[in-house]
Specification:
The complex is a heterotrimer.
Chain A (H helix, E strand, L loop, with lengths): L5 H21 L7 H13 L7 H34 L12 H14 L4 H22 L8 H25 L3 H12 L7 H20 L1 H7 L3 H6 L4 H23 L5 H13 L3 H25 L8 H22 L5
Chain B lengths: L2 E10 L2 E11 L4 E5 L6 H8 L7 E6 L2 E2 L5 H7 E4 L11 H6 L14 H13 L15 H14 L4 E5 L7 H15 L5 E5 L3 H7 L2 E6 L2 E6 L1 H4 L2 H8 L1 E7 L6 E8 L15
Parallel strand pairs in B: 3-8, 3-9, 6-7, 7-8
Antiparallel strand pairs in B: 1-2, 1-4, 4-5, 9-10, 11-12
Chain C lengths: L5 H16 L19 E3 L2 H9 L6 E5 L11 E3 L1 E2 L7 E2 L1 H6 L4 E5 L3 H4 L6 E4 L8 H12 L2 H22 L5 E6 L12 H8 L2 E3 L13 H7 L3 E4 L6 H5 L8 H4 L3 E3 L13 H14 L11
Parallel strand pairs in C: 1-2, 1-6, 2-3, 6-7, 8-9, 8-10, 10-11
Antiparallel strand pairs in C: 4-5
Helix pairs in contact in C: 2-5, 5-6, 6-11, 7-11
Classes of the chains: A mainly alpha, B alpha/beta, C alpha/beta.
Chain lengths: ~350, ~270, ~300
């Protein structure tokens, strides 16, 4: 298990990401050859007036924001997954499996119900995400650490709690327009990604991942266990809190763009660990890039599998993620990992 | 005096675990901590490196109260070889040992060449070079114990605390660990504390023993003074024979039978070592 | 173990299915035999309330849904019945039963809540397309002893439909995108709105999708280039729709042919003969603006 140089990871990741995004700009109901894509892209980059060709509209106005949105949703979820797995020392932790995503979605739905602005409801969703994750942390923790089953069971129930709360808010809402906005939030998917929210999400995601990178040694130690991290010199309380806040913020950013997208945060860290090893200074960027590429790819499938229909993103990620989860779970059981 | 614990009292909730415990570790010394299950040995150990904060009493490392030190500062002085320490994720031995460097790394910095060098030295010292890339999950008990020691060494500590290091080790590895504990203490500017159940090894390798029973210190002193048939009977509730071993010159304890008139009625204690 | 054998489970499942699918023995309305006409009707679908109004039988209705907007029902008891989107399919069953109705009219998905209570229930199909309107009106006419009136209403409806068909007959079909509340979500084959659009001379861009409520991708909508866009009352506004990325290319947007059904005039949304009025007053002029208004009716 050779640890990879983070710089190499970053370079490779960037190249792969650009390739994936470029490919997604070509693919769609109407295929745009890569040459055309290359021709119209500079108009966007330079801020020149766009031509009115179909290619330009498709690529620049519709697919580019969507691809960028997809990429950063995946990057945010992949990184959040890695952080949560370290924080909870649980290879099966992910933003949806432990209820963070549902808690965040509840915050957004509540914000819609209360008529808050986009930023306001985003902040509210961050607070609810932290609350939900804290419940899991507090309840599943014992003197002997945090057993995986306790984390998962608590997380599933927290997820159900917030799903119920979402249902409650929907019940109380009598405004049809509000209601359909709420359901849209929850179904997930990148149907309509516009640039304005991305102007907030993209830098925020980058800042969070950057902060996570600064904490990469802390993440390494956290995944050893609280006792070990403590004796090796880490202040588990402050580091744990920082990691908790970062992962909740990342999850909220992703949920605000794409709703609840399950399993990305679970699958990506495992795959990334196999590729670059467990050291977080390489793992975290790998998770970001891999997560981004995964969501871009799945989104392409969502758009093109059954034209003219669009398949829900969350359904597709679950189709991939559930078998993965079952395989990992089974191998854990076989190894007798019942810590 | 390198480490000095004075009148430590600690409770788990309302259950008293330690009462008025004092312990000193001198530079160059190998101190042993012995006593029956539930005596509070592991709890005391955790108070010594700050994992637990005692209700009463103070732990001083040289002239500093450890309660005033940051975790990193403590980790730079005190290394701990725990009883259990398996990571949740499969990592390589090299990576695992490398985590010991955390205390020496700059705040937001990474893993430098210096750290890499130090890890290599620690691996070599513990005879683990050939296992650097191996996953920790694939190691035997003895190998993993050496890895834990290497990890603690990577902190470049002055004091090493061993929590029951010879559990589940075979004879060879038991000896190796105890030999290492002593040689580390003799390096100069260093000391060792070992929590042990094996009284023979304790007597052989420790310069002084602290005997604990039901959360209190019964006696502290050289092994011959502490381990008598009388103290063994009153502390462990066992009739034993204490004799000097011809080969090593140190005392060994042979338990005979449970003492029938057992004044030893140990109360249940949450912390079982 | 006999209880664990697959055969046992198969038989058990068959028995459950058979029992579940058999008509509710306590529901006289299910067998078509109601005895004397009901005087205390709780009508939980807007389509049935409207149909009852057309049949002149509104005075027999004692309670309607909370958000029922049919004129003449303002003073009636309102019962909460959330069958809109979301997980809360909530019907206040106790409120219904407390009124001691002798007939309840409800959508089929409320069967678990309302059947086997000893009260006659007239079930209305959940996916009410045009083909459910005629049986509904006929059934209501029979149950309420207003058979002649029902026939009149239906004849009038058929006549209006024929008139629309005649007017749009020679004209080219128009590509229409109907948005049912959520962006991308449209009404598929067999739904009422789709039937009405087709009647008015339009073809849904979703084509022959087998799904009842297909979700179209934004790209697909731009590529299929509808000439007219019809928005449900709770969709985004026409201005917001025009601002969607890439939609400035769509013919409907370019020519300003984006229309939203107003909240007041929702006749297209519920299965009753009024839907044809909605088609005539809204869809036909939107889809074929060149047509002259219909000849005056006596």
């Amino acid at each position: 298990m050779r640890a990879r140089n983070p710089v190499n990871v970053a370079i490779l990741g960037l190249v792969a990401a650009i390739a994936a995004i470029a490919l997604s700009l070509c693919i769609g109901v109407i295929h745009v050859p890569i040459g055309e894509v290359a021709r119209v892209l500079p108009d966007f980059v330079m801020g020149r007036d766009r031509e009115t060709s179909m290619a330009s509209t498709l690529v620049l106005e519709m697919r580019l924001p969507r691809a960028v949105g997809a990429f950063f949703v995946g990057a945010a979820l992949g990184s959040a997954g890695a952080m949560l797995q370290a924080l909870l020392r649980d290879p099966l932790a992910s933003p949806t499996l432990i209820g963070t995503a549902q808690a965040s979605a509840f915050g957004r739905v509540l914000g819609v119900f209360l008529g808050m602005s986009y930023v306001g409801s985003l902040l509210l969703s961050f607070l609810t995400a932290v609350a939900g994750t804290l419940i899991v942390l507090v309840i599943a923790r014992s003197r002997r650490g945090m057993p995986s089953q306790a984390v998962l069971l608590t997380g599933v129930n927290v997820g159900m709690l917030f799903a119920a709360l979402i249902g409650l808010v929907q019940y109380m809402s009598t405004d049809e327009g509000q209601l359909s906005r709420m359901v849209l939030l929850l179904l997930g998917g990148l149907w309509q990604v516009t640039w304005p929210p991305l102007a907030l999400i993209v830098p925020a995601t980058l800042v969070c991942i950057g902060a996570g990178l600064l904490l990469s040694r802390h993440l390494d130690l956290l995944s050893l266990g609280e006792d070990s991290a403590l004796r090796l010199g880490m202040n588990t309380r402050s580091s744990g809190t920082a990691v908790l806040l970062l992962s909740c913020l990342l999850t909220s950013l992703a949920v605000s763009i794409a709703g609840i997208v399950a399993f990305v945060g679970l699958v990506v860290p495992h795959a990334a660990r196999r590729l670059v090893g467990p050291a977080h200074r390489a793992l975290l960027p790998a998770c970001a890039f891999l997560g981004g590429i995964l969501v871009v790819a799945v989104d392409c499938v969502a758009r093109t599998a059954l034209p003219p229909n669009e398949l829900p993103l969350g359904v597709l990620t679950s189709l991939v993620g559930v078998p993965f989860f079952l395989v990992v779970m089974h191998s854990m059981v076989r190894e007798g990992a019942t810590r | 005096m390198m480490l000095s614990a004075s009148q430590i009292s600690f409770d788990y909730g309302r259950v008293p675990v330690l009462a008025d415990v004092s312990l000193d570790i001198a530079e160059g010394a190998v101190c042993g901590l012995v006593g029956p299950n539930g005596a509070g040995k592991s709890t005391l150990l955790r108070c010594l490196y700050g994992a637990l904060r005692p209700r009463k009493g103070v732990v001083m490392f040289e002239d500093r109260d450890i309660a005033a030190l940051s975790r990193k500062e403590i980790a730079r002085r005190i290394g701990v070889v725990p009883q259990h320490g398996h990571p949740y994720f499969a990592v390589s031995v090299g990576h695992f040992v490398g985590m010991g460097r955390f205390a020496r790394e700059p705040l937001l910095g990474g893993f430098s060449k210096l750290d890499q060098e130090s890890v290599r030295r620690c691996l070599a010292e513990m005879d683990l070079d050939h296992l650097e890339q191996r996953s920790v999950a694939e190691l035997s008990g003895g190998e993993f114990r050496r890895v834990l020691i290497a990890q603690a060494l990577a902190q470049e500590p002055r004091l090493l605390l061993f929590d029951e290091p010879i559990q589940q080790l075979d004879l060879l590895h038991q000896l190796e660990v105890m030999e290492f504990a002593r040689s580390f203490a003799r390096r100069g500017g260093t000391a060792t504390l070992v929590v042990l159940h094996d009284l023979g090894l304790a007597a052989r390798y420790c310069d002084s023993l602290t005997l604990m029973h039901q959360g209190r210190v019964v006696m502290t002193g050289p092994p011959e003074q502490v381990l008598t048939e009388e103290t063994i009977r009153s502390t462990w509730g066992v009739r034993a024979v204490v004799e000097r071993n011809r080969a090593t010159g140190t005392i060994q304890v042979t338990p005979l039978a449970p003492a029938r008139d057992s004044a030893h009625g140990s109360q249940p204690n949450p912390e079982h070592t | 173990m006999p209880f664990a054998s697959p055969l046992f489970f198969a038989l058990l499942s068959a028995a459950i299915l058979a029992f579940g699918c058999s008509p509710d023995p306590t529901n006289p309305a299910a067998n078509g035999s109601l005895g004397k006409p009901p005087m205390r009707i709780v009508a939980l679908t807007v389509g049935s309330v409207d149909s009852l109004a057309l049949l002149g039988q509104l005075e027999r209705v004692i309670a309607v849904e909370e958000d029922c907007f049919v004129p003449g029902t303002e003073h009636l008891v309102k019962i909460r019945n959330d069958d809109h989107s979301g997980p809360s399919k909530a019907l206040n069953v106790e409120a219904v039963l407390a009124l001691h109705p002798d007939l309840i009219i409800a959508k089929e998905d409320l069967k678990p809540a309302l059947e086997n209570r000893g009260i006659a229930v007239l079930w209305v199909s959940s996916s009410g397309g045009l083909d459910t309107v005629i049986p509904l009106v006929e059934q209501l006419g029979r149950s309420l002893g207003a058979v002649d009136r029902a026939r009149m209403v239906l004849d009038s409806m058929r006549e209006k439909m024929a008139s629309i068909e005649r007017r749009v007959a020679g004209l080219p079909r128009v590509r229409v995108y109907y948005e049912a509340g959520k962006p991308g979500r449209t009404a598929g084959r067999g739904t009422l709105v789709d039937d009405m659009i087709r009647l008015a001379g339009g073809d849904s861009i979703a084509g022959d999708s087998p799904l009842a409520n297909p979700l179209l991708s934004s790209e697909a909508i731009v590529a299929l280039d509808p000439e007219v866009i019809v928005l449900s009352p709770w969709s985004d506004s026409p201005e917001e729709v025009a601002l969607r990325p890439g939609w400035s290319r769509i013919s409907a947007v370019i020519h300003g042919r984006v229309h939203r059904i107003s909240e007041e005039n929702r006749k297209l949304q519920y299965p009753s003969p009024s839907c044809v009025d909605g088609c005539e007053s809204m869809l036909v002029p939107w889809i074929h603006p060149s047509l002259a208004p219909p000849a005056e009716r006596k």
